[in-house]
């Protein structure tokens, strides 16, 4: 039984160390300038990392001090976390798969179509209740300072001053744009779409961390379960 417990303790010690990058990934996302105004989205990654850490710690303690009941609880929680992680990955793929970004000739950056993003993402981020606080936060950053749609035909003066649109009826945002630094295009669909585009890009990167975490949990569970089963079989002989 000592050998089996040593195996479980060792792999959980490694998993405990691996949980630290997951937590820091969530903190990194929260510190990004464009995520600073949307505080609720990056923290699930931190939450998953903390659960991963607690789970690994539980498995390590149960194995190192030979606590069969704690090991059984550890295996149950591990299985539950695997299922939760898979569900989160499926939902994240559904939410982040649609993209509203499109390239415009003569522009070094993409423009965005608001309706090109998933309905959940649009409703969660840009509904009137949430967008009011997000908009106020964006006004203090450099986000959305240069987003009058190309179709409007605005003449560039500087990043926050565009004049004489040649096609003011080309898009609803053409009328909304205002050179007032406190207004600009913060109420434009193109600004909302730009925020969603940045979030989508960073969450797709964060999904890679989640995929690695789920694969690690599955491997961890299989090794720990076999070691635990062998230890239980050995104790009955």
Automatic annotation (TrEMBL):
The keyword Repressor does not apply. The keyword Membrane applies. Keywords: Membrane, Transmembrane, Transmembrane helix. One of its GO terms (cellular component) is membrane. It is found in: Membrane. It comes from the Eukaryota. It is a multi-pass membrane protein. The chain crosses the membrane at residues 6-29, 41-65, 71-95, 208-228. Pfam families: Tetraspanin (PF00335). InterPro entries: TET_plant, Tetraspanin/Peripherin. GO terms for biological process: auxin-activated signaling pathway. Belongs to the tetraspanin (TM4SF) family. This is Tetraspanin/Peripherin.
């Amino acid at each position: 039984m000592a050998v089996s417990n040593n195996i479980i303790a060792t792999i959980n010690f490694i998993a405990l160390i691996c949980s630290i990058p997951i937590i820091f990934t969530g903190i990194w996302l929260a510190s990004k300038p464009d995520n600073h105004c949307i505080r609720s989205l990056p923290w699930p990654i931190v939450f998953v990392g903390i659960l991963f850490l607690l789970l690994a710690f539980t498995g390590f303690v149960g194995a190192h001090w030979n606590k069969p009941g704690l090991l059984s609880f550890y295996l149950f929680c591990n299985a539950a976390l695997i299922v939760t992680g898979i569900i989160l990955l499926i939902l994240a793929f559904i939410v982040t798969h649609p993209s509203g970004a499109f390239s415009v000739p003569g522009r070094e950056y993409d423009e965005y179509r608001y309706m090109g993003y998933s309905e959940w993402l649009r409703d969660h981020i840009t509904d009137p209740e949430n967008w009011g606080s997000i908009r106020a936060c964006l006004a203090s950053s450099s986000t959305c300072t240069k987003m009058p749609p190309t179709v409007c035909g605005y003449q560039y003066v500087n990043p926050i001053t565009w004049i004489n649109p040649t096609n003011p009826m080309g898009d609803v945002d053409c009328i909304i744009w205002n050179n007032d630094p406190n207004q600009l295009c913060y109420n434009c669909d193109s600004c909302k779409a730009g925020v969603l585009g940045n979030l989508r890009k960073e969450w797709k990167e964060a999904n890679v961390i989640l995929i690695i975490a789920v694969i690690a949990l599955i491997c961890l569970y299989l090794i720990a379960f076999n070691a635990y089963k062998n230890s239980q079989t050995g104790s009955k002989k």
